[in-house]
Design goal:
Strand content: 5-15%
Helix content: 25-40%
Number of helices: 16
Strand order of the largest sheet: 1-9-8-5-4-2-3-13-14
Bound molecules: pyridoxal-5'-phosphate
Largest sheet: 9 strands, mixed
CATH topology of the largest domain: Aspartate Aminotransferase, domain 2
Shape: globular
Radius of gyration: 23 Å
CATH class of the largest domain: Alpha Beta
Length: 441
């Protein structure tokens, strides 16, 4: 048993941990997500009574209205609604020019679909490591990742932290590549005042239930390029030719990925709250950053430089060496036992148990080994040892909520480091990384 393994010494702090029967810091629930609000019912009723519930004719009334507003909020001219963010991944890359047999440079610290979408398009993912300083896609690896088959770069604004666009745009311009931003975790975010999504050729968003803007499911491709927008419309709608198309646009893969009018109506209503919720999240996140900086051996990922509006899909706690050396899994479970809904975060996609069937042609790129690397040491370390997530819903709560989180983190840190060195090593060896092995994420 875990407790027996750790606790031969019976340190007092350890006894207090809720994981081992102590009193939890928090027994009342935090705010939940998704959250219904003012105007949602009316929006759904409007779609219901309009009588045309589906996505045909594409774009239907609610989808067109939402797409226009959402694109404008993200400094883009054109927007196309669809059924999922996974489809937005596939359609954004394909519309931006990806062809079978080509390669796409993409970070491993990611949800699985941006990378498996490359394979779905018949391409090969060139999966790069993470920068040890920014904890985002390692932009120093772009040149090493390049080959004569490279079609483009797909970045991912991890947990809402914006990947600085300038080096990517420069690289893409130099080599004539497309740049697609995956914005599924960064709705509403701004970098130097400019909205995410508007930096590259196209952007993919998800409105799945955990996202900052959600209708339960849904996806969106945004762009400032009319030709890309037209291709995306064709892909969403079975290659159907629109009267307003400027050219004949056809893809061999013919699919229906349209969004229902109910989702679009709900999204329009939820969008009216995005900016005010963003302000509350930022205020509470600031408090949490300050609290975390006061706890030894613990930190948090601050917004990146020049990020003028951080999105905070997740608040990322970072574990210092002494805690990471024991076990992120124990820290996580101890924190959850204290009543804090902490999460393990992404399993790097190149070692994710559910991508094994599609990994044959993936190419890895690391600082140590360059293109053709066998492992990606930075992301493997950060993901399995260092990062612990808090979901954004709780950032809409009170100052007292943030204090409870900090109290629990402090308590778990003190409790875990109450274990003596020999036992810590024993614990690290014997604790299963439950999250990592099952990847129920
Ligand atoms: C970065 C990223 N891209 C794409 C997706 C896929 O979105 P969906 O779940 O709507 O298919 C998600 C999340 O689910 C994501 O986090």
């Amino acid at each position: 048993m875990l407790r027996d393994i750790i606790h031969k010494g019976k340190e007092k702090e350890m006894d207090n941990l809720a994981l081992f029967g102590g009193k939890p810091v928090r027994t009342t629930p935090f705010l939940d997500w998704p959250k219904a609000g003012k105007g949602d019912l009316e929006a759904l009723k409007r779609a219901l009574e309009a009588g045309s519930w589906g996505g045909h004719p594409e774009p239907n009334t609610e989808a067109a209205a939402f797409a226009e507003k959402f694109a404008a909020r993200h400094d883009m001219k054109y927007g196309i609604c669809m059924n999922t963010g996974t489809e937005a991944n596939r359609i954004s890359m394909r519309s931006a020019g990806l062809k079978p047999g080509q390669e796409v440079i993409i970070p491993s610290y990611n949800w699985i679909s941006p990378i498996t979408s490359v394979t779905t398009c018949g391409g090969d993912p060139v999966v790069v490591d993470i920068d040890p300083d920014t904890h985002l896609m390692d932009l120093t690896l772009l040149e090493a990742a390049l080959s004569d088959k490279t079609a483009g770069v797909v970045s991912m604004h991890y947990t809402g932290r914006i990947v600085p666009p300038e080096p990517i745009l420069e690289f893409c311009k130099k080599h004539n590549l497309f740049y697609v931003e995956d914005c599924a975790q960064a709705h509403g975010g701004r970098w130097k005042g400019k909205a995410v999504g508007s930096f590259g050729d196209a952007a993919a968003f998800s409105f799945q239930a955990s996202k900052i803007l959600t209708a339960g499911e849904g996806g969106f491709v945004g762009t400032n390029n009319l030709e890309i927008a037209n291709r995306a419309h064709a892909m969403v709608d079975n290659n159907r030719q629109k009267p307003w198309f400027t050219e004949e646009i056809r893809f061999p893969e013919v699919t229906n990925s349209r969004m229902s009018e109910f989702l679009a109506a709900l999204l329009s209503s939820q969008l009216t709250r995005l900016d005010e919720e963003q302000v509350i999240r930022q205020k509470n996140a600031r408090l949490l950053h300050d609290f975390m900086s006061e706890i030894p051996d613990v930190g948090s990922l601050e917004p990146v430089q020049d990020e003028t509006t951080p999105a905070y899909w997740k608040f990322v706690i970072t574990l210092g060496e002494p805690l990471a050396g024991i076990s992120k899994d124990v820290f996580l479970r101890a924190l959850m036992a204290e009543g804090i809904p902490a999460e393990p975060g992404h399993v790097p996609v190149h070692i994710h148990p559910r991508t094994t069937l599609s990994r044959d042609n993936w190419i890895l790129v690391s600082r140590q080994e360059g293109r053709g690397a066998k492992s990606l040491p930075v992301v493997e370390h950060l993901a399995t040892r260092v990062h612990v997530w808090l979901p954004h819903g709780i950032l809409l709560g009170s100052e007292k909520d943030m204090e409870d989180i900090a109290t629990a983190v402090r308590k778990v840190r003190d409790g875990m480091l109450g274990v003596n060195n020999k036992e810590s090593t024993e614990l690290a060896k014997t604790t299963r990384q439950v999250w990592y092995e099952s990847a129920e994420v």
